[in-house]
Target: Decaprenylphospho-beta-D-erythro-pentofuranosid-2-ulose 2-reductase
Amino acid sequence: MKDAFGTPQSLLVLGGTSEIGLAVARRLITRRTRTVWLAGRPSPERDAAAHGLRALGADVRTVTFDALDPAAHEEVLGKVFTEGDIDLVLLAFGVLGDQANDEGDPPSAVRVAQTNYTGAVSAGLVCAAALQNQGHGSLVVLSSVAGERARRTNFIYGSSKAGLDAFAQGLGDALYGTGVHVMVVRPGFVRTRMTAGLPEAPLATTPEEVALAVERGLRRRSEVVWVPGALRVVMAALRHVPRAIFRRLDV
Model:
């Protein structure tokens, strides 16, 4: 359960090597989170992430999880919940893909969609059911401003995030009143390994700034969080730009 300060005592990160996910974990550990599960494919990076969080004083456990293996999600994630209540599930996995390559390679495009959307739907429903069974908890879903309106330069990734965003909002409505809180987080350009080498977009942010926004959103029980907040206004305007003009914009 959450402590007297509203901080989750236990955290499950789906995407155990996600830089944003780990930034959230570090921030919450400094705020009294004590148990952290890192779910992801076995790798030296996952081991190093677990070691780093243990150094902060958390009880860190790892579990093998693959977004592209939805048939195993119920068993794998179900075992985590049998170990004790989970106060917060952070759905943080996702891939950017390579738009220029993926347009001419449908299997690669499908892999982006299966990871970002299909895998998230599966894992999200499994965790939502487990949270509902225990009667409390939050599910935080990392979406993206890219899902607000598909752009020519990344419509494969953007469409997968649009689907994820709609799913998470609908799931939040379905769980309203059950004691389970769903929060959608929409960051803009985040400086991570995934975006390394790409031209930096305006209002770029960092994993630490996203983590701060997540913490504040949890405290306020927000349903949607934009990072940075100014993107809410920017995207509200861009949604209404005529398509003939939008396709020519350098955004």
